[in-house]
């Protein structure tokens, strides 16, 4: 299994330096990362809107070691909000945040992350959009869900992410599938022990279907994060069985992956949101994309071999 090896490499400074220097890296990174600056990502948001697509924007970077870095991450999102305001795209452009970027792993990290993310959520609400809290490894989830619950008191549209490979997630889905909630379901992309997570792909997929059924049958707004054609078709059928209209749930896929499918689903009348990452600290995000799908790793390998 290459996935766990790649995920371990995502924490290695030596591998970071090696991959950053590899001649084919930029070609592959550019496939998954929309740019390094707000100025570079704005045209992508506009182009997506022209195609009938929506986006969720992620300023990449997770290795926060000081409160000052956490505040800088907050300020990067506040800058993004100001630019989105000028675009006047409303809910077509929301934001996704990882609480690790806002200081969650630091001393008093729960309180620090909440204090840093709240202004971003407030600013997003002021321009007619919202924020989704991304899920990270299982040790961070109780804090993430508590922050999510606190934010929803004032900003009920705040979303969160759940991961089908974790044993706990079906219970989390039942709790979250309430009126007004926004919940993104993904398979999961962190290395988790067998004590808390399914290790077999087939079991992860089965759990994904069970959780999607819970969300579709609930009173909230499901967001189906998958590129798997079979899971997409199953989600469509579960939506029909639950009596949902096409605008009562949405699909989400990553920027740079199955772009034709983005347009196809939107043309069928589905809400289709593209998870669009940008920024200079791309390494951790990039490595998880490689770990998720062997074809991405093969693409990277070919690029290195054909460069330089």
List the helices and strands and how they pair.
Elements: H1 2-9, H2 13-21, H3 25-32, H4 38-50, E1 54-59, H5 67-87, E2 93-97, H6 109-126, E3 131-133, H7 141-154, E4 159-163, H8 169-176, E5 182-186, H9 201-217, E6 221-225, H10 229-241, E7 250-254, H11 259-267, E8 271-278, H12 283-292, H13 294-305
Helix pairs in contact: 1-12, 5-6, 6-7, 8-9, 9-10, 12-13
What does this structure look like?
The protein is of the alpha/beta class and 308 residues long. 52% of the residues lie in helices and 14% in strands. The protein contains 13 helices and eight strands. The protein has helices spanning 2-9, 13-21, 25-32, 38-50, 67-87, 109-126, 141-154, 169-176, 201-217, 229-241, 259-267, 283-292, 294-305; strands at residues 54-59, 93-97, 131-133, 159-163, 182-186, 221-225, 250-254, 271-278. Helix 6 runs parallel beside helix 7.
Morphology call: globular
- Oligomer status: single chain
Uncertain segments are: 302-308
**Biggest sheet descriptor:** 8 strands, parallel, barrel
Number of strands: 8
Quickly give the structural class: alpha/beta
The share of residues in extended strands comes to 5-15%
Percent range of helical residues: 40-55%
Key features of this structure:
308 residues; 8-stranded parallel β-barrel; 13 helices; alpha/beta; 14% strand
Give me a quick take on this structure.
It is built from 13 helices and 8 strands. It has helices at about 1-10, 15-20, 25-30, 40-50, 65-85, 110-125, 140-155, 170-175, 200-215, 230-240, 260-265, 285-290, 295-305, and strands spanning about 55-60, 95, 130-135, 160-165, 180-185, 220-225, 250-255, 270-280.
